[in-house]
UniProtKB/TrEMBL annotation:
Keyword Phosphoprotein included in the entry's annotation: no
Statement: the UniProt record of this protein carries the keyword Cell wall biogenesis/degradation: no
Gene: xerD_1
Keyword terms of this UniProt record: DNA integration, DNA recombination
Superkingdom in the source lineage: Bacteria
A GO molecular-function annotation: DNA binding
Domain named Tyr recombinase: residues: 1-114
UniProt-listed SUPFAM superfamilies: DNA breaking-rejoining enzymes
Protein name as it appears in the record: Tyrosine recombinase XerD
GO aspect biological process, one term: DNA recombination
Organism expressing this protein natively: Kushneria phyllosphaerae
Database matches in Pfam families: Phage_integrase
């Protein structure tokens, strides 16, 4: 943990990755945990389990903390984050794994219109357009 980033070292795929975090959140993390080693004490998992037990939420075995990761990813996409950035944050080796979240982006297909090749094309002399038709009548 340094320079507003958190580094994950013991990941499922064995690759280390560093993720930037909000500066306010970083300061809270820094005050809460050590600079080197685990951010949260080992009883954080137990505390989360006890909190879940006080609710009606039922999760499959082994998914207790994974649900937090999934929730982050879902909200990241719903708030306008892009899939390639999310892939790097989550450490997915393939974009196909990250694509599970694509449907959560309310505007992900609108980018085809926003960034497509037709944007900014001059159609004044194109047959079949109003401008082209007008030009042809003169």
């Amino acid at each position: 943990m340094r320079n507003n980033t958190v580094t994950y070292v013991d990941t499922k795929n064995g690759r280390k990755r560093t993720v930037p975090v909000d500066s306010e959140f970083y300061l809270k993390l820094k005050a809460h945990g050590p600079r080197i080693g685990r951010i949260f004490p080992t009883d954080a998992y137990r505390a989360f389990t006890l909190a879940l037990n006080r609710t009606t939420i039922v999760l499959p075995k082994g998914q207790r903390t994974h649900v937090l990761r999934h929730t982050f990813a879902s909200h990241f996409i719903m708030n306008g984050g892009d899939l390639l950035t999310l892939q790097r944050i989550l450490g997915h080796q393939t974009i196909q794994m990250t694509m599970r979240y694509a449907h959560l982006s309310p505007e992900h297909l609108l980018e085809a219109v926003k960034f497509g090749p037709r944007r900014g094309v001059d159609t004044t002399l194109t047959p079949g357009t109003n401008e082209g038709d007008e030009a042809g009548k003169k």
